[in-house]
Amino acid sequence: MPIDAVPAGKRFFIHTFGCQMNESDSSRMAEALLRDGWAAAEAPDAADLIVLNTCAIREKAEAKVMSALGRYRLVRAQRGARLGVAGCVAQAEKARLLERVPYLDFVLGPDQISELPRLARATGAREARTDFVGSEEYVFPRADPRGVGAQVSAFVTVMKGCDNVCSFCIVPHTRGREVSRPVPEVESEVARLVAAGVREVTLIGQNVNSYAGGCTFAELVRRVAKVPGLQRIRFTTSHPQDLSPELMRAFAEVPLLMPHFHLPVQSGSSAVLERMRRRYTCDDYRAKIGSLRALVPDLALTSDIIVGFPGETDQDFAATMALVEELRFDNLYSFIYSPRPHTSAMRHLGEWGEVAREVAVRRLERLQARQREISLEKNRAFVGRTVELLVEGPSRTDAAKRMGRTRWNQVVNFEGLAPAGALAQVRVDAASVVALSGVERSHELPPVGVEPSHPSGRRLRVL
Length: 463
Ligand code: 5AD
Ligand code: SF4
Prior knowledge:
CATH 2.40.50.140, six-stranded parallel β-sheet, 3 domains, binds 5'-deoxyadenosine, binds iron/sulfur cluster
C-alpha cells in the first residue's frame, strides 16, 4: 500500500534485539502488520505502534530492552502509541512484565506472532499472549516475498525451539521444544524468495542438525540446492554433538553450500563442558573439526566461547586459549558467563563457584585480543587474491563503494559497479580484522527477470 494511502494512526516501528531467529520473526511481524493495513514508520517517534522484539540470552541483553522501553515510554505518552514486548524476554517474563512495566500494552511470545495485528488494533485491556504451540498444531509463519523487497540474502526458518539441556542457556525455556518445518514448506518458501530476487538463503533454527521435518538436515540442504536460480546456501546454528558425517559430506558435495561453518565449542576444557552439559569433550570437538577440514580444506570455521563459567579455573581457561591457538577459528563470538533464570548452572552457582567479575573480564580481553590477531592474519592471507562475491548493495562504511560477501562469509567493500545480486570477481588489496577491501575485475549479472527490484539491494532490516 502506498504510504500516503495508510490511514493516520497506523504506522509501526519494530526494534529488534538478538539473533537471526528474532530478525526473521521481526520480518514476519512486519509482514503481518502490512497485510493488516499498517505502514512502516521511519522512526519510533513517528510510530503509533512500537514493538520490541527482545533477547534474553544474557543479562546485558535484557538490560538493553529495559532501557529502550524507558525511551519509548515517552512516545507512548506523547502520541498515544501502543507499546508491546515480543520475543524471548516476553516469553520468559510473560504476564509478569505487564506488572513490572505499567505503561506496557501487550506481551507477545515467539509462538504468537499471528496475534500481533489483533493486539496492535485493540484499544482495550492489557494482554499477555505467551502460550507455546505444540508440534502438531504449530504452523510456521510464511515469509511474504513482497516483504523481501531488495534482499539478496534471506533467512528461512527450518525449525524452532531446542531440546538440548545446556546448563547456561535460557533458550529452551524461551523457545520451547523443537518443532521442524515440513520439507515442502521449506522448499516452496525458498522458491518464492528466489522468484522475488533472493540469491542466498540461510537456513535457520536453534539446532538445525536435529531437523526432523521429513528428512535429515543434510538431505534438506541437498533438496534446497535444487531450487532453480538459487546461488548460495548457508545455515546456522549447529550443536557439535548432533553434527552428522552426512552433513560434513554435504560441505564437500553440495556446490551451493558455502564453505563456512559456525560450530559453537563454548569452552576448551572438558571439565567445563561437562558442567555445561554439552555432551562432548574437547577431543570429540577436535576430531570433528579434523574430519571437516580433511573433507573441505578451505572451510572457514567460527565459534562461540563463554568465559568465566562457574568453577572455571586458570587451567580451564588456559585450555580454552590453547584450543583457540590450535584450531585457529576465522572468527569467534565470546562472552562472559551470565547467570540466567530457569537454568541449572544458575542453581549450581554456589556449589561450582562464581568466577570473580575482574577475572572473567581479564580472560575475555585476553581471548579477544588473541582472536583479533588470528582473524587479521587469516584475512591478510587474502590480499592479492581475486575472490568471488555475492554483491549485496552499497557499502555500509563507505558510500562510494559496493559491498559483497565471499564464499567464506567475509564482508568485502570494493570499488566497482556490480549490482545487488550479481556475482563479482574482486581483487582484494587490503584486510582488517572485520573486513576486506578491493577492486572489481568483472561481474556476472543475475539471471534476467529475477534481478532484485530495488537499486540499493540492501538487506531489509526491520529496526
Ligand atoms: N551467558 C553467556 N553467554 C551465553 N550464551 C548462551 N547463554 C549464555 C549465558 N548464560 C552464548 C553461547 C551461545 C551464544 C549464542 O550465546 O556461547 O552459543
Ligand atoms: Fe536471544 Fe536466544 Fe532468544 Fe535468539 S533465541 S533472541 S539469542 S535468547
